[in-house]
Write a sequence for this structure.
């Protein structure tokens, strides 16, 4: 019990207590552990100037080992991002650090995004994680972002692809862990990617809080009281439409 309390305290300490205010953008998080301590983690932070980083990740283990592995991975990503422009190179450096200890048996999947808030250009790399989803304001269609590479902590020579994506005003980006798509109904059916995409298309686009509330309610209705079988994390990034952005007061620096 003491170990669980310490692991939970570590997680709470290293997860962001508040998200940065990004002019022209909205961001929100939903994080839920299946047990007292989970393997999911996220981060949203300012890198330099108008550039920000977004991370979502899932450690393969649970309990104290996962909590410690989470803090190491999150700290490395932040440290290697300070003077970096390439999310793929950052994750490759993190991977080499994680595979330095040969006795390690854990691995971590992750998506790391670096985006310019003013220009609306997003760069990202995917290390074995669920594919992020892009909702285009112009069409309302939900699209997968291109597939990534292998999880971190497995092979030191892991090479990752990097992609660039222009994000138009009104567009949404959704990052999630497999606890979302692998939520189970009482009959054993999984929520699945197609049901998630259909849910995102129907979700209200007024603001991220209502958007996430709708998804949570759909997941709850699907489970019908069945407890979550895995940790569940959602990160939502929304570029404000031009009319809302013009009316939005300038946020304080974070």
């Amino acid at each position: 019990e003491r170990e669980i309390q310490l692991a939970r305290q570590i997680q709470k300490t290293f997860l962001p207590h508040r998200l940065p205010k990004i002019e022209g953008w909205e961001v929100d998080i939903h994080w839920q552990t299946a047990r007292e301590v989970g393997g999911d983690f996220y981060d949203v932070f300012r890198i330099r100037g108008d550039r920000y980083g977004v991370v979502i990740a899932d450690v393969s283990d649970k309990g104290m080992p996962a909590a410690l592995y989470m803090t190491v991975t999150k700290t490395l990503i932040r440290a290697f991002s300070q003077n970096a422009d390439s999310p793929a190179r950052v994750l490759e450096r993190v991977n080499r650090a994680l595979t330095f200890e040969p006795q390690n048996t854990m691995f971590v999947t992750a998506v790391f995004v670096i985006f310019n808030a003013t220009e609306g250009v997003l760069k990202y790399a995917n290390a074995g994680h669920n594919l992020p989803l892009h909702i285009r304001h112009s069409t309302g269609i939900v699209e997968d972002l291109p597939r990534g590479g292998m999880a971190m902590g497995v092979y030191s020579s892991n090479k990752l692809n990097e992609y660039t994506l222009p994000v138009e005003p009104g567009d949404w980006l959704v990052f999630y862990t497999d606890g979302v798509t692998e939520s189970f109904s009482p009959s054993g059916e999984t929520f699945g990617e197609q049901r998630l995409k259909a849910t995102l298309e129907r979700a209200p686009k007024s603001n991220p809080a209502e958007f996430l509330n709708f998804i949570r309610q759909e997941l709850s209705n699907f489970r019908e009281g069945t407890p979550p079988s895995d940790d569940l994390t959602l990160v939502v990034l929304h570029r404000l439409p031009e009319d809302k952005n013009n009316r939005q007061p300038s946020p304080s620096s974070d």
Summary: Helices lie at 2-14, 63-81, 87-98, 178-181, 192-202, 208-223, 242-247. Residues 63-81 form the longest helix (19 residues).
